[in-house]
Specification:
Layout lengths: L5 E10 L4 E9 L11 E5 L5 E5 L10 E7 L7 H7 L5 E4 L15 E6 L3 H14 L3 E7 L8 H8 L3 E5 L8 H6 L6 E6 L1 H13 L7 E5 L12 E5 L5 E4 L5 H7 L17 E6 L2 E2 L7 H6 L2 E3 L4 E2 L3 E4 L2
Parallel strand pairs: 7-8, 7-10, 8-9, 10-11, 12-18
Antiparallel strand pairs: 1-2, 1-6, 2-5, 3-4, 12-13, 14-16, 14-18, 15-17
This protein binds FE2/S2 (inorganic) cluster.
Length: 316
């Protein structure tokens, strides 16, 4: 099965900031797939890998087009550089849309948090909530004014429902205060770096928001702070031992060895690839496990997490 069945042709692009580019694509050989706020698709890269990008409901986007927003990362493994080098008329292959970050049904209000490029799915959520006539507020945080993309579009979508915060002045985001101002039955959504997700989850728990009303999606930088080390994975049911190279995920290594595994988001936030750990110490890099689950070292997300020990024995 072709995991990248869509052929997307670049119609236009705009430098939204010095580092963030929006791209509008037409769909070759077919109709534009249906998608809902929070969805992403995976764009195939020349190196054989792919990268997830959230679909954006930019104001004025034609019905027969799709839009993505891409942050250029200097130390990227190729995805963002590739996307920033695309020209009008270039064609890329992409997966069908997948949505692990859906808006709730019904009329309950929403509180949206976005950090940096994490705004891409959240902008679509704000547009959907505005179209529904639902009550919501969007808190958008970043370091400096010049680095926050899509502000004109957000102002058009949200009008008075947008609060913008810069890390270095008195408008700094106060998550607890934002939660305190929210309605008791509000659903909370956050997309951004892991520190922001953890902070919103902790503040929501402290404010008494039940976990099933807190929804999050990680924006995972392509940059890693320290080089990864190789390690081994042993499959408990067969005893097979598979080497995981420094530049490989456990899922990639298992698939290369002919082992079937279930996964979806491949960025540690959907939970589908969760796997029991019989022995060894995982290096957790997901955003879905609770602190207790992480500390237990009995489960891990094999799409992103690695090993602190030389070998992991997995319950596969
Ligand atoms: S595939 Fe989604 S958490 Fe691993």
């Amino acid at each position: 099965m072709d995991v990248h069945p869509l052929k997307l042709k670049v119609r236009s692009y705009v430098a939204e900031t010095p580092f963030i580019r929006s791209l509008v694509f037409g769909v070759e050989d077919g109709v534009v797939p249906q998608w809902q706020a929070g969805a992403h698709l995976r764009v195939a890269l020349p190196n054989g890998g792919d990268r997830p990008y959230s679909l954006m409901a930019l104001p004025g986007l034609p019905e027969d087009a799709l839009a993505l927003g891409v942050l250029r990362e200097e130390a990227s493994s190729g995805g963002s550089q590739f996307m920033h080098a695309l020209k009008v008329g270039d064609v890329v292959k992409a997966s069908a849309p997948v949505n692990n970050f859906r808006l709730h049904e019904g009329a309950a209000p929403a509180l949206l948090f976005a950090g940096g490029i994490g705004i891409t799915p959240v902008l679509s959520m704000a547009a959907e909530l505005a179209a529904r006539g639902s009550s919501y507020r969007l808190h958008y945080a970043g370091r400096t004014p010049g680095l926050l993309a899509f502000l004109p579009q957000l102002q058009e979508i949200c009008a008075g429902g947008l609060s913008v915060h810069y890390d270095n002045d008195e408008s700094r985001l106060d998550i607890a205060a934002a939660l305190g101002d929210a309605a008791a039955n509000a659903h909370v959504y956050v997309c951004g770096p892991s520190g922001m997700i953890d902070a919103v989850k902790a503040a929501a728990a402290a404010a008494g928001v039940s976990a099933d009303r807190v929804h999050y999606e990680l924006f995972k930088s392509e940059q890693t702070s320290a080089p990864d080390r190789p390690f081994e994975v042993e499959i408990k049911s067969t005893g097979q031992v598979v080497g995981v190279a420094a530049g490989q995920t456990i899922i990639e290594a298992l698939e290369a060895a002919g082992v079937d595994v279930l996964y979806d988001c491949r960025r540690g936030d959907c939970g589908i690839c969760q796997c029991g750990v019989i022995a060894g110490v995982p290096d957790h890099r997901d955003v879905i496990l609770s602190d207790e689950e992480r500390a237990s070292n009995k489960v891990m997300q094999i799409c992103v997490s690695r090993a602190k020990s030389e070998r992991l024995v997995l319950d596969l």
